[in-house]
Amino acid sequence: MNLRTPVTLVVAAATVLGLAACRDSRTDTASAGGADHVRIMVGGIDKVIYLPAKLADQLGYFKEQGVTVDLATQQAGVSAENSLISGDVQGVVGFYDHTIDLQTKGKCLESVVQLANIPGEVEMVSPAQAGTIKSAADFKGRKLGVTDLGSSTDFLTQYLGQRQGLHAGTDYTEVKAGAGSTFVASLENGQIDAGMTTDPTVAQLVATGKGKVMLDMRTEEGTTAALGGLYPASSLYMSCDYVNAHKPVVQKLANALVKTLQYIGSHSGAEIAAKMPADYAGSDKSLYEKAISDTKSMFNSDGKMPADGAANVLKVLSQFSPNVKGKQDSVRLTETYTTEFVAKATP
């Protein structure tokens, strides 16, 4: 499978900067043709956990709603959120937990479409370490890969360790391993002993024998066992100011994404893969189809935040996040997500 390289990310970042130079994304939503125009950064556009963003575009659902959507990509969610805060884009498809983390810094971001109720992340172990790293209790003294420091994989890795009484920096070392080919190389070359990643990287590692699954959060059962409950993850989040000022545009985005979620639920991995850009599958189409099949159950069908989901995310972050720990009682969860638009979605 031909996983994306950092070159793609540089091009995407340059595209976003060029767009930002032409318009202030926090105020302008109109394209030259008069249609609504939105720029969205995805925390890894070819990751299956964020598949609904590109799939909606491929299916023509954004166009059907009368909105032009420019999708760009960053390798990690923390980089994507920075693009939103700086005003380069108007929305991010990334993990919901960033809205809580940033509220403690005085930033108001809210999930307007909750795409998944679970992370879809997998802790992979190198074959050489599989016999000794069998659970998070074995993290002590290890080098653990995360997408980036401050990313959601960082949050989740720290929580898994915390549940075993282990702490990052003192009991184990977190290493920025990126995603896709950079993660594969880090695991293969021994730069990390284990690490957290998603499909299609998981499918490639298993198929080539370069990695083994230690912990699987692609199912509700696996997520509950690992985290003590659901962990709403992939979402479209935007600044509260933008949402309040552009409700008709946000409604169109919600309509398109909810329709996409319903498409995912009613089609096979092979059918979905056929709608995606050919280069996402690379040279192994069947492996890409399997990656989608293995992960697609993580997506919900209505875009709504699950009951108690946001509270569990706050519970996880409050255990270790320096921004949230000790401040959890002041976090206003109702301001970190809204169901206003998905409740009225008309796919």
UniProtKB/TrEMBL annotation:
It holds the Pfam family NMT1. Its main location: periplasm. GO terms for cellular component: periplasmic space. Residues 55-266 form the SsuA/THI5-like domain. Keywords: Signal. It is found in: Periplasm. Belongs to the bacterial solute-binding protein SsuA/TauA family. PANTHER family: ALIPHATIC SULFONATES-BINDING PROTEIN-RELATED (PTHR30024), TAURINE-BINDING PERIPLASMIC PROTEIN (PTHR30024:SF47). This is NitT/TauT family transport system substrate-binding protein.
